[in-house]
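We emphasize that the prediction below concerns an isolated chain of 493 residues; any contacts that depend on oligomerization or on bound cofactors are therefore not represented. The input was used exactly as deposited, without trimming of termini.
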Amino acid sequence: MRTRRPSLATVRLGPVELAGRSVLLRPPELADFAAWRQIRLRDRAYIEPYWYSSPLDWAARHTGKLWVRECSMIRADARAGRRLSLAIEVDGAFAGQIELGSLDKPVGSAEMGIWVDARVARHGIGALAVAMLLDYGFGSAGLRRITAPISPENIGATRGAEVVGFRHEALMARYFDSGGARRDHDLWAVIRADVPPEGFTPKWLEHCAVVSKPVAAQPVTADAGVAVDQRGAPRALDPAEGAKSATDAEPSVAVLAPEAPARALPDELPARAHTLSPLTVLTARARYRAGRARHALDPLLPTAPIRLVDHGPPMVVVRDRTRADRTAWRAAKLHHRELTPDADRNAAKRRYGRRRWLRESLCARAGLRSPSGLVLAIEVDGAFRGECRLFDLDMFDHNAELHAWTDAETDDLVRMTALRLLLDHAFTRLGLQRVSMAVAVDDAATSGVAARLGMTREGTMRDHVGPTGRRADHELWAITLESNQRSRPSVDP
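Result of the prediction step, given as a token string:
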């Protein structure tokens, strides 16, 4: 039976003192709206190039209704244990946001993102917030791997990630749509083995004490700032922040966009005061709750039938699973060494019983947006031989992960044919822009399949839990819509 995720709605971290300033991480509040909007409107030139693309005007993306909706989403996700998004408060004033998103407690993974007010950037405040959340993630949250995607153009963020403790793992092609185009992003990660004995926070404080000059404390006001982020809603922020270098006199850790010119920022935007009226709050909350209610039954709704065919020989069909597949599915699972490595056979029989089959079928009923993703049967000359999955759809419905398994008697040509059918379906019918595969470093056969599909090896993800549930180092392979259109590799052996 699945256990309920613990609520994260009351998590508060700190305060921690750095250079005479007090840093607190706490849940965002509706009262933060004025500071949030003021900072982000002022720093549009630095934020927007790294923010997710949208047809809306920048000001229209920072309205009171959207802030109320975001706070409601953050609260709901925190209560469900899916995401921990916190406001960064410096000396009692709102100064940015930081989060652990895509939280998967059973797997022990999450993705970090942060944006910070420029008036506290370059003084170590942002990196301190990162360190505090890393300590929480690897401590109380029990995580084993935290990632952060960063644009290669974002030199400050790259340096900041490295100096805090992240390690570069891969360059992900066309990973994210920002500034009006799909752009490459570096994958940075911290795993449990990287955690310093004393913790990230004490290590960063010690670092700042060694390399810092005395810095006059500058008050943070609600209308100050430079904030930069990668993705665009606190739900999907960019990673750790930038630093000029690890030995700068004023450790810098905050700019997620290119470093801003060294000039004074205007004290105030020529705009009216930004406040939330009770009617705005009421309307936004009502619309948010109505939307949640409207989509509450989505996971139970079936999708359109799928049947993808390669006439071969052999004839390979990728189709929806049926009840008649259960017996063959169980037999194939029991004889698949990767899925049941050195397992007790009786335990394996219990694991792949009728309840498991029914649970997997229900979880995959809604297709790609279901918890299990799109799960399809692989049929060869009329016989069930395995399954392929398209899963882990991102929040913008553009990226997903691919996996397939077959029984011991089926060769890799069949698996590659099934994956090619599903890839074409993903790009032509489902509207995906990028599909990736996580392949264990010792799985040469699957790496060969990925290469012959036209995928590119982008790097190695350390201590990653792959689609089979195995924790190990995994190669990251991927193909984009553009590269798929340019190259249709042969499936000949």
